[in-house]
Amino acid sequence: MRRVLLAALLAASLPVTGGGAAEEAHHHHHGSAVPPRPDCPAGDTSLRCATTATPAFTPDGTLVLAWTAGGRVMVGRSGDLGATPMTGVAVNPDREPIDDSGESRAAVIADGAGSVLVAYSRHQDQPYSGTLMVAYSGDGGRHFAHPVLLANDPASQRFPALTGDGRGRVALAWIDKRSLAAAKRAGRSYAGAALAATVSTDGGATFRPERVISEHTCECCRIAAASDPAGHAVLMWRQLFDGARDPAVTTLDGRDNPHRVAADNWRVDACPHHGGAVAVGPGGTLHVAWYTGGTARPGLFYARSTDRGRHFGEPRPLGDPGRLPSHPQLLAAGGRVWLAWSEFDGETTRILAQSSTDGGLSWSPPHAVAETKDASDRPLLVADGPHPFLSWLTRNEGWRLLPLAGDQP
Amino acid sequence: MSRRLFIAAIILALLAPVLAARAAAAEIQPFGRDGWQGLTAAHAGRALVVHFWSLTCAPCIAEMPEWAKLARRSRSFDLVLVATDPIEETPRLAAALKQWGLDGVESWAFADRFTEKLRYAVDPHWHGELPMTRLVAADGAGQTVIGSLRSSGLGDRLAGHGR
After folding, report:
1. Which residue among A9, A29, A128 sits closest to B58, beta carbon to beta carbon?
2. Is residue B10 part of a domain?
3. Which of A29, A270, A346 minimises the CB distance to B130?
4. Which CATH number fits the domain that encloses residue B77?
5. Is the pLDDT reported for residue A386 higher than 70?
6. Span A284-318, pLDDT tens digits
7. Average of pLDDT values for B138-157?
8. Chain B contact for A40, CB < 8 A?
9. Which of A44, A212, A263, B134 has the maximum number of C-beta atoms within 10 A of its C-beta?
10. Following DSSP, what letter does each residue of B26-76 receive, concatenated?
11. Is the overall model pTM greater than 0.90, yes or no?
C-alpha cells in the first residue's frame, strides 16, 4: 500500500502531458541512447539530431532507415546505402514523447511489395508505461498513414520488435502490462510484465488481435525477433523463471511453447536494460546471444539449437570479460551467421564481429568493425540480401552503415 | 508591533544558517568524468555507501523509503546518492528526494552524456543495472551490490553497520 501511495505521489509530481516543451525535454533527456546534440534545436528532425536509428532493407536493395529526433519518428530511403544524405518523412504528424532509450526504439520492416511498417512506443503520463503506435506505408516508405493504436488493452506497450519473411508475413511483439494492471485492480501482486505478439499476412496493413505469449517477463529489456524458413517469427526475451531473469525463446507457429535458453540463475530485483539477440539459419538452426549476471555464468554468451529451441548447446562466452562485452546482435546472411557486440575499455567503445560458415559450430576470430569515444546507440546488424552491415549511431560520428569485413565469397 | 517584528527578525537571523545549510545539502551536484574520484576523495578514510538510482527504475523508486530510514539512523558510514538521470532533471530529482525525506543526503546526478565512462570509473564491470550500490571501506576497498536492499541482503548488512 505504501508503495502504491508513493508511486501515486511520484506520478502526481510528474509534469502533465500536453505536448509541452518541458515534457518533451524531460523525455528526451531520459536515457536517450544518444542525447540530442547541443546545436540541435528542439524539434529538429534531421538524422544528425537523431537519438536512435534502426535500419531495414527491401529485397531490391533500398535502405529504409527509421530514426527518432525532435519528438518524431522519421523514415528515410536510400538507394546508395545512405551515402546521399536522407531527409526523411515524419511518421507521426505531431511531436510526441517517444520512448527512445536505446533498449526501446522504433522498429521498422520492409518487404518486396512496397510495404513499410514502423512501430514505436510513446511515453504515457505514468512512469514505466508506453503506448504502442503503428504506422503503415504502402509505397515503400514515401508516405505513411496516420499512426494507429494496435493493442486491445490500454495499460502499457513498450519495446516493440518486428520481423518479417519479406513476403508479407510480419510479426510484431512487445512488452505488455495488461496482466500487471489486472492484478493490481484485483489487489493481487504480479511479478514483471508480459510478452504480447500479433501477426499480419499482408505486410502489416492489418493485424490479427494480439495474444499474450508469456506471463512474467522482464519489464525493461527489449525483445529480439527473427523469421524462420517457414516464415514464422522466433522471439527471444528475458523471462522470470521463479525469480531468475533468464533468456527464453519461442516460435510463433501456433503450437510452440516458451523454452528456457539457459539456467543462468540471475536472481536480481533490478532493471538490466539489456536485451538479447536471435537469428535463424537456413536449416532452421536457432542462434541466440544474451547478457546475464547469473551465478551460473556471468557475462555475454552465445548458444545454438537444432531442435527449434527445445535444447540449446553449451553457452559460449563472448568478448573480453574485462571490457564489458554488451548488446549482442545476430544475423543470418549469405550462408553465414554473424555475431556482433560492443566492448568498452574505459575510453573507447568498440563493435566486434565474427562469423560462422558452419551454422554456428565454429567462428572466425572477432575483429573490430568500428569504434567511438563518446555516447553511442546500440549496434545493429542488417542484411542487404547476402551482404551484412553494421548500423551504428554515435555522438561523434553520426549514423554509419559499415560493411562487415570478410564479406567476400 | 515593532517589538514583534524585532523578535521575528531575531528568529529569522538565528534560523538563517540552518536554512542555508539545508539548502546546501539539498543541492544536487553534477557527477562528471572526475565525479567518482572527487566523491570518494571527499569521504576518504571513512566507510562509504554510494547508492545509484534513477527515476526510470521502478525497483529503485519502490525502495527509496527504506533508504530514507537508513539515512535517518545513526550510521557508521557516510551515505551518498547518485542519480543516473541527467543533471538537467534536477527539479524532478529534487522533488522526489524531498518527498522521500532524502533531501538532506548528499546527492549527485550524471552530468556527462558518455554514461559508459561515468559507470566505468565506479566499477569497470558494471553494465548499468539499477539499483546498484557501491560499498567503499575506510581503506578504499570497493564492492558492488546489484539489486534492491531486500533481495540482495544489503539492507540487513547496512542495518547491522548502523548500530
Report:
1. A128
2. no
3. A270
4. 3.40.30.10
5. yes
6. 999 999 999 999 999 999 999 999 999 999 999 99
7. 92
8. no
9. B134
10. HPEEEE-TTHHHHHHHHTTTS-EEEEEE-TT-HHHHHHHHHHHHHHHS--S
11. no
Average pLDDT, chain B: 87
Do residue A293 and residue B129 have CB atoms under 8 angstroms apart?
Answer: yes
pLDDT in tens, A110-146: 999 999 999 999 999 888 899 999 999 999 999 999 9
- Pairing mode of beta strands A63-69, A52-57: antiparallel
pLDDT-derived band at A26, boundaries 50, 70, 90: very low
Look at residue B144 and tell me if it is in a domain.
yes
Residues with Cβ within 8 Å of A302's Cβ and at least 6 positions away in sequence, in order, are: A287, A288, A289, A315, A316, A318, A328, A330, A339, A360
| Chain B CB within 8 Å of residue A187 CB | no
What does the pLDDT read at residue A27?
Answer: 40
Please give the average per-residue pLDDT across A195-216, as a whole number: 96
Q: Cα distance from B21 to chain A (closest Cα, Å)? A: 25
In three-state secondary structure terms, A138 is: coil
Number of domains composing chain B = 1
Strands A116-123 and A130-137: antiparallel
| B131 within 8 A of B53, measured Cβ to Cβ | yes
Banded model confidence at residue A31, pLDDT cuts 50, 70, 90: low
The amino acid that residue B28 corresponds to is I
**How much is the average pLDDT of B150-156?**
89
A30:B95 CB<8 A: no
Grid coordinates of A150: 494496435
Phi/psi at A174 (5° precision): -155, 170
**Which amino acid belongs to residue A56?**
A
Most B-contacting residue of A245, A268, A397 (CB-CB within 10 A), to test interface: A268
Mean pLDDT, rounded, for A60-83: 97
Contacts of B57 in chain A (CB under 8 A): 270-271
Judge contact between A99 and A120, C-beta under 8 A: yes
Cis amide prior to B131 (ω within 30 degrees): yes
**pLDDT for B12-52, tens place per residue?**
555 554 444 444 445 999 999 999 999 999 999 999 999 99
DSSP per residue, A17-53: PSS-HHHHHHHHHTT-SSPPPTTS-TT--SGGG-SEE
Report CB contact under 8 Å: B85, A31.
Answer: yes
- Check if A273 contacts B (Cβ < 8 Å): yes
To the nearest whole Å, the CA of A39 is away from the closest chain B CA by 15
The range of the structural domain enclosing residue B115 comes to 27-162
A258 Rama class: left (phi>0) / alpha (psi -120 to 50) / beta = beta
Give residue B161's pLDDT.
61
- Is B145 a member of any domain? yes
Contacts of B125 in chain A (CB under 8 A): 324
Secondary structure of residue A82 in the 3-state scheme: coil
